[in-house]
Amino acid sequence: MIRRLTVSVSVALLAACSTAPSGNAAKAIAATEAAARAPAEGLPPQKLTPGECGLFLWGMAAPRKFVFFAKATSGDALVLIDDAPKTLAMAGASGDVFGQFLTEMEYAGAASARRVKVSIKPGEVLEGGQRVESGTILFVGADGWETVLPVTGVRACMPGG
Questions:
Q1: In this structure, are residues 105 and 89 in contact, taking their beta carbons and an 8 Å threshold?
Q2: CA 161, CA 52: separation in Å to the nearest integer?
Q3: Max CA separation in the chain (angstroms)
Q4: Could you read off the pLDDT of 91-145 as tens digits, one per residue?
Q5: Using omega within 30 degrees of 0 as the cis cutoff, is the peptide bond preceding 63 cis?
Q6: Staple 160 to which of 50, 63, 67, 128, CB 3.0 to 4.6 Å?
Q7: Residues 11-63: pLDDT tens digits?
Q8: Count of Cβ atoms closer than 10 Å to residue 78 Cβ
């Protein structure tokens, strides 16, 4: 009797596991899978060729993740959005000169209404670059909701070229 009950419970559990998730469960599974694909530290490592300059930003919340990268001459940025790297095009820039960048930049995705606004406060000058003392990345969703992420980072140039 106990053996038959154990087999019945096991079959029922297997059947429950084999059905396709729907609604919120499917969204939670998709988010978990996306997070598993993204490196734990955020964006993948980026390279600069000799003479190139880039802006590297990390989120301030624990765990700290590499969330933003832009080359000075590209006009595009690689941004960590929903734990996945997305390439966004520059939509505008203003503010003070910060090396080859400006202190206020806005990026937009071609396929979505999502916008990303980057605001940085320059810090200490370093050999080949400058620190970002503080800053924020403002994520504006298609629905108008805004999320603010405090950031810090560095503007760095690869010598040569």
A1: no
A2: 8
A3: 79
A4: 999 999 999 999 999 999 866 667 899 999 999 999 999 999 999 999 998 888 9
A5: yes
A6: 50
A7: 333 333 334 444 544 444 444 444 444 456 799 999 999 999 999 999 998 88
A8: 19
